[in-house]
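Help: read this over?
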Amino acid sequence: MPDSLPSDSVGLVTPQTLHFDEPLTLACGQTLKQWDLVVETYGTLNDKRTNAVLICHALSGHHHAAGYHSMDDRKPGWWDTCIGPGKPIDTNHFFVVSINNLGGCHGSTGPSTLNPDTGEPYGPDFPVVTVQDWVDSQVVLADRLGIECWAAVVGGSLGGMQALQWSISYPDRLHHAVVIASTPRLTAQNIAFNEVARRAITSDTDFHGGRYYEHDTLPRNGLMLARMVGHITYLSDASMGEKFGRELRDQAYKFGYDAEFQVESYLRYQGERFSESFDANTYLLMTRALDYFDPAYETDNDLVKAMAKARCEFLVLSFSSDWRFTPARSEELVNAMIAARCKVSYAEIEAPWGHDAFLIPTPRYNAVFTAYMKRVAREVGA
């Protein structure tokens, strides 16, 4: 960590835990009587409260999207390349709210937090949540912050699904939705990948039916395998080839089953690191929320009819090498928006990094994103 922070950083930030006593009824029929959300904010809310931007995170994301928690941090927040002074989401103009969703494992109420009725962690008793549930909780958060209408709701991947759900469920409470590297619903292949990941976790002997907290253990192997499967789908064949090729760790075959290729070593490292920082029950919840997301489900599978509820403007971005959420899925969404007479801007960005390309700044991605957000700032007087 340098002695001083970069000039385009939001600087040192402190997470806030907001407690809510308002009961929240979930799509599964269960109700959370009380719950917490952890958020970070960057920039300043203007007097008219018109310049607020909500950041929705992807599967393994959290509230720490930008800046540093201390001068000892080696890395900034997960989307620091896009949030800060002079960046696409310019904190000289916007008040940015980044959230850790319900069911998460970074402070918001979820499986690893204490159930107030029992005094023990919720574990597998934490209800299954949906994208709609997250959006409903974010509405309560907006009310707490005094934000009647977001200048924009922004998200990549699973975060983009939340931005899309906002536009349909609360059309009068956002001016713009930015949907990046996302999809209106998962393909069968995507659901299959999620099921393999969940089975890796639930088959771990240390999973104990999700009650591993009570056994003072963690299903590390299962979570590591789940992350390895997921990580493969986030990268493209070209990016993995460029980064690793078929390089051997020791330049010779050992005729065994340890990690001999560089890509094997990389995947094991990523899986092991993830298993130490993420909760297995939360992983199950997040992947199921991905599976369930389908805004056309309640409109007889008519996506045009679902999008007709929206009133905001849209920016939809896809990436050429993203085979998890392909450009074709974004184009399906854009075509439905056009048919529903929504105002939408769309760009497919040439990038070799697969699904993870939405986290990596490239000139065209940065230019398109920045130009759109500058227009949002002008429109809301930010």
